[in-house]
Amino acid sequence: MIDQEALVRDVSPAMSLETCETPALVLDLGKVDRNIARLRAHLAKLGVDFRPHVKTSKSLDVARRLFPAGSGPITVSTLAEAEYFASGGFTDITYAVGLGLDKIERARRLVDEGVRLSVLIDTVEQAQALATAARDGGAMPAVLIEIDCDGHRGGLLPDDRTLVVIADILRQGGVPFEGVLTHAGESYNARGGAGLPEAAEGERAAAVAAAELLRAAGHGVAVVSVGSTPTAHFARDLTGVTEVRAGVFTFFDLVMHGIGVCDADDIAVSVLATVIGHRPEKGWILTDSGWMAMSRDRGTQRHPVDQGYGLVCDIDGTPFTDVIVEDASQEHGILKVRPGSQGVLPDLPIGSRVRILPNHACATCAQHETYNVVDGQGREITARWPRMRGW
């Protein structure tokens, strides 16, 4: 049988950013390691454990930059991710998306295989379904209750007595109840860092209040989990919190740059594109990387600085002044000077190569099957790392 993963990892000694086929997803490993070290150091000062989210990279190789021993703890957004990372030796996993009732047995199989899996719920119906499943005496995942800290998505408010009802059902049904989890999704609406310390405190306070309500009702709460990349970096006090989750921080992107969490130079992932045409009368340069390579995510559209479909850099990753992918079709990217800017379109002959920083790293990476790894010191591709897909 052909080992497809081995084929992906096989890199010709001559392969480089100048010779590989485009579009190509490029990963700067020096920036990845720097981003990881930055957040780990910050959280260590605050005295909390770290459970990074691996949904951005979906890659065992990237996860091993976080945990060289490869066991975790990690956070995932799909059960396919949980299965993939478990196959690579990660055994402490939180599945941080509301549990579909049809996924209970699949989650139980992971536990039966030795994975310490936690699942997320926020309804009585989910709790009842778990309690019913537990009647056969088989392995069950631990349960976290989702808390709504800012009205962004799902979860229960910290003072909602349904929290106690759910915990009661789990206890009576013999299902392990572990604690509470929240996510400050509204922090993504910040700009330039303003309001992020306050969002981090709101996130912390909501999770801690929910934990206190449950403890007052006689339930043990071992886990108080918070996290988003913006709040993780701007938190000042995490009293009462046991762990922090964050995901896109490994790569960063233009949304995080616009929010004020990182500099453009911290963005570790880019799409390598080749110039295939010019339309000087329109002020356009055409590349072979359209929205199939970049994704349709326009996450900076409402930011003070709209980055179009991505910010354009030279082949070495240095941004041109105010040059963006202003428009895109399926396989064409249109490079243009940002509207209203005094920038000048660079001289890029046919065959020139550029690197494009993405709006949303998760969405752009999802368009590709492999990372072309560089070390940030040159154009050589030192490895090709596979990434998983699916649900």
Describe it for me?
With 391 residues, the protein is α/β, with parallel strands linked by helices. It has twelve helices and 17 strands. It has helices at residues 4-9, 29-46, 60-66, 79-87, 104-112, 124-133, 162-172, 196-216, 229-234, 254-259, 291-294, 361-365, and strands spanning 24-28, 49-50, 74-76, 92-98, 116-121, 142-147, 177-182, 223-226, 243-244, 269-279, 284-287, 311-314, 319-328, 333-337, 353-357, 370-374, 383-386. Helix 8 (196-216) links the parallel strand 7 (177-182) and strand 8 (223-226).
Number of domains: 2
Name the average pLDDT: 95
Largest sheet report: 8 strands, parallel
Order of helices and strands: HEHEHEHEHEHEHEHEHEHEEHEEEEHEE
Separate helix tally: 12
Number of strands: 17
CATH fold field value of the largest domain: TIM Barrel
Strand order of the largest sheet: 2-9-8-7-6-5-4-3
